[in-house]
Amino acid sequence: MTLAYSFKSAFQSLCREKWINILSIFTVASSLLIITLTAFFLYNVELVASHLPERFSLVAYLNDNISQEEVQGIIDTLQKRGDIAGLKYISKDDAIKELKQTLKDTRYILEGLDENPLSSSIEIRLKKDFVTSAAAKRISEEIKKVSGIDDVYYGEKIAEAIHLLKKSLQNMSIIIFVTISTGVVFVTYSTVKILFYRKKDEIEIIKLLGATKGFIRMPFLIEGGAIGFFGGILGIIGALLFYFAVTYRLSMVIPMLKTLVFPLEILILLPVTGIALGIVGSVIAIGRLKL
User: Fold this and answer.
1) Residue 105: its pLDDT value, please?
2) Cβ–Cβ under 8 Å, residues 107 and 45
3) Which one of 9, 129, 176, 212 is most buried, counting C-beta atoms within 10 A?
4) CA–CA dist 157, 170 (Å, integer)
């Protein structure tokens, strides 16, 4: 009975004070839309960044005149390591072929070479969790100690750039979410506070009739959650319109935009986030008021 009354009271208040509630809903929707578009952007950047470690590799250069048995022994040793995702052996002949293919327009540079100056090598791909500057340096130093390996090259700056990109994306998403969420809470807080003062006479009457603080507060919590929920729904609509505009309209000019992915989890998370932030704003508002 109490809960039914609270929902009825909250619905009546939403309808009676429709303009201030509509304004609050659109303000919340705009804020949640910014969060959604930021998440959309970061999600797609993260998809690209997640594939970067797969392209990162170390190159172990082998000693000259090393036998095939020794090469196989090195490969077996490296495959036992838990930080290596894959290996690729490149012989001297394969290396010179790749170089000639790369320099096909300036192949004359290689003319006059009496012998192949390149070394056999093993291309080593690390697991994603180990693609950091510190880890790559440690692993390369350990691999250098393997008998038959002359030197190890690893792109220290590339590994560091990949690591910093992932960290920056995480930090950026946290900062934006906290900032915008604070704004949503403030909007709901202000709206509920105004609604409370507009219903002050009504609240005084039901207090005289013996209403508890929880009974009085519940409709405001529901109203704050409803503002957040409808704001979340409008935010989803805005985000989907933006997504279709980008992928179907702008992709005619920039075909690469067709590859953008809309995270479907947002369809559930946004209304839920709106409800949570709306209730938090309501709790702060009525918690600071004397009943």
Assistant:
1) 61
2) no
3) 9
4) 20
| pLDDT tens-digit readout, 151-177 | 887 766 666 676 677 778 778 878 888
3-class secondary structure for the chain?
Answer: CHHHHHHHHHHHHHHHCHHHHHHHHHHHHHHHHHHHHHHHHHHHHHHHHHHHHHHCEEEEEECCCCCHHHHHHHHHHHHCCCCEEEEEEECHHHHHHHHHHHCHHHHHHHCCCCCCCCCCEEEEEECHHHCCHHHHHHHHHHHHCCCCEEEEEECHHHHHHHHHHHHHHHHHHHHHHHHHHHHHHHHHHHHHHHHHHHCHHHHHHHHHCCCCHHHHHHHHHHHHHHHHHHHHHHHHHHHHHHHHHHHHHHHHCCHHHHHCCCCCCHHHHHHHHHHHHHHHHHHHHHHCCCC
